[in-house]
Amino acid sequence: MTIRLFPPLIVLAMMMAIQPGLSAEPEWRHATALVGEPKYSEGFERFGYVNPDAPKGGTLNLSASDSFDTLNPIPAKGDLAVGLELVFETLMTSSEDEIAANYGLLAEAVRFPEDYSWVSYRLREDARWHDGEPVTAEDVVWSFEQTVAHNPQREFYYRHVVKAEKTGPREITFTFDEKNNKELPKIVGELLILPQHWWEVTEGEQRAIDETTLLPVMGSGPYRIANIRPGESMDFERVEDYWGKDLNVNVGRHNFDRVTYTYFGDRNVEFEAFKAGDVDFWRENEAKRWANSYDFPAVLEGKIVREEPENLYRSSGVLVGFIPNLRREKFSDPRVRRALNLAYNFEDQNKNLFFDQYERIDSYFYGTELASSGLPEGQELEILENLRGQIPESVFTTAYENPVGGNERDVQANMRTNLREAISLFREAGYELRDGRMVNSETGEPFTFEILLNGSIIEKVALPYAENLKRIGVDVSVRVLSDSSQYTNRLRSRDFDMIYSGWGQSMSPGNEQAEYWGSDAAGREGSANYAGIADPAIDQLVKQVAFAKDRETLIATVRALDRVLLANHFVVPTYTLRHSRLAYWDYITHPEELPYYGIGFPDVWWYAGKE
């Protein structure tokens, strides 16, 4: 019998074909999607919502609030300038007519195994920095290493990435410390890529990647920084020889020759600049102004367009409100936190301040299919049953509802009832009223706290809330910080009793939930766990969200998480609006049909010219 010998590689291939435990190398993909399959197939011409014939030209004048003192996006230091997404790019980019779908930008392809234990990206050969140097695998690895070294929040976000390495001439592989977390390939694809050679220049002005800087940083994107007036304004100019201008993901985008941002310390002054034509686009955030302040000539003459698209809210949920700092002992009891909610009168504020434009938030995923409602059942109930005894029993017996502060017949009657209930809850938690002050029954220490605000916009909401609390003996002060950097520093260091803030949510929650509610994030300076939530049951639910095997399981798990968060009364939820309020001068315009999940601003808008 003749024995036939095969080269080792052929033997390996034969073994892989006959052994179910071995599999071939994963295929390269042009796109990824967390929900379903990517809408656009390989080799697609353009996104469906862009105008491929949009003219190039003109200047877009925009405004920003407060100020800035750094152009370095890496360290968690300083106030970062807006608009830098025009300069820097990521490996992948998203489309605005899909949920959580990403397509190649700096990377032309991506691949990962079935267990998501690693991901590789292959860079485009013609990707270039603004100085003409190629974007390299070394740049990607360096950008990752610097990001996790100098930004605690990003370090936590990428904590499951144990290694980033160059694995080919234009290939980078990220290795993870856990399997079956399908979001991990996506989040590293959203990593901001910076030029290593520009930051590590050996001659001239020192460029420290771990420090703030006002040097005009270099990127690979469609715009470069043209002019800087520190703290006041920035100009971005379109890069005529931008390497990626003909990519399918960029067709019909980046149409303005110049984009300028002017900073204002006062929102009312900022609006006056819009009225005068010095600012082209305005996103309204004040109900009273939207209702009463658009009767000036440019509006009446049709030179300013007003729109209320709901597009941005079709793929996002939100929770905003007053957030007590649980690191303060006084807020540790959930009965106290529930009492704080009873003192907030949304109905009165909506009628008298907001012209009935808003709705009350009753979920951490408000406005989406992920929001819980009623009592748990089915798979959601099964998930919660596994945590029975570790979570509030009310999760199983009582559907969450916010207290109602007013009614048409007698607004004050409801509020008096709510405040009486709040006093009872304080009493159960060990407090009592003495001479009109809420004090600790054992120590006599008054229950007082400060609401810290970033600017004056929410002051008109916080002051009536503070007055209601004073009616039950809780002494509350409201401090408005006009210096945003001071507020940022106090927020990062947890130097506050209560703030007004919130969290946006996508339709595909995942690893970021640990950043919002996880115990590890609670003790880390600068995390998005503002409240300081540290609860083993919530940690378990957060992990289950990240590892949900399918969409049905994800929805059930997120709803379960929502219920547990609500039942602990970590936040006093306030209000939201489920559509945008936009106003803009008629010499800028957009495609007739905006992307289903966004407004495409400013990417797919263009300059239409002035008469």
General description of the model:
With 611 residues, the chain is α+β, with helices and mostly antiparallel strands. 27% of the residues lie in helices and 21% in strands. The protein has 19 helices and 27 strands. The strands form 9 sheets. Strands 21-20-22-16-23 form a 5-stranded mixed sheet, with helices on both faces. β11 (223-229) and β12 form a beta hairpin. α9 packs antiparallel against α13 (411-428). The chain is globular, with a radius of gyration of 27 Å. It starts with 7 loop residues before the first helix and ends with a strand. 39% of the residues are buried. Residues 1-22 have low confidence and may be disordered.
Task: Please state the overall shape, judged from the principal axes of the Cα atoms.
Answer: globular
What order do the strands of the largest sheet run in, or round the barrel if closed? 21-20-22-16-23
Distance between the termini: 91 Å
Mean pLDDT: 93
Fraction of residues in β-strands:
15-25%
Largest sheet at a glance? 5 strands, mixed
Over all CA atoms, what is the radius of gyration?
27 Å
